[in-house]
Amino acid sequence: MPSARASELIEVARDASRRAYAPYSGFRVGAALLGERGTIHAGCNVENASYGLTVCAERVAVLCAVAGGERRFAALAVYVEAETPAPPCGACLQVLREFADDMPIYLAGCGDTRIDVTLAGLYPMPFAPAALDQRKRD
What we know:
The protein contains four helices and five strands. With about 140 residues, it is of the alpha+beta class. The chain has a five-stranded mixed sheet with strand order 2-1-3-4-5. Strand 3, helix 3 and strand 4 form a beta-alpha-beta unit.
């Protein structure tokens, strides 16, 4: 992916992090998901007093993209308001894997470090839709 497009995704993710609802952790996260059609879908984390109901920025971006008709993704940027970039959690990686076999993921924070990884690099052995084809049938 061209560096300019990666930078654009990171900027969208940074802007999304400013809209995060994070009154409990104070850990604001933004995500920008590039659909195969070229549309960028943003998401931010939304916390809840019942912590288990909190939704990560990456999943919010996926849900917005799917609601907009997108089904395949080309790249993701995640921005955290911390010096060190942070990767998506396991639940987010599993949801992302539903819609992309692999894609570049750009991790950024408010420091100078940017980490470029791939979905397959972060999540090498996902539970994939093909596993359902192998279920035992009576």
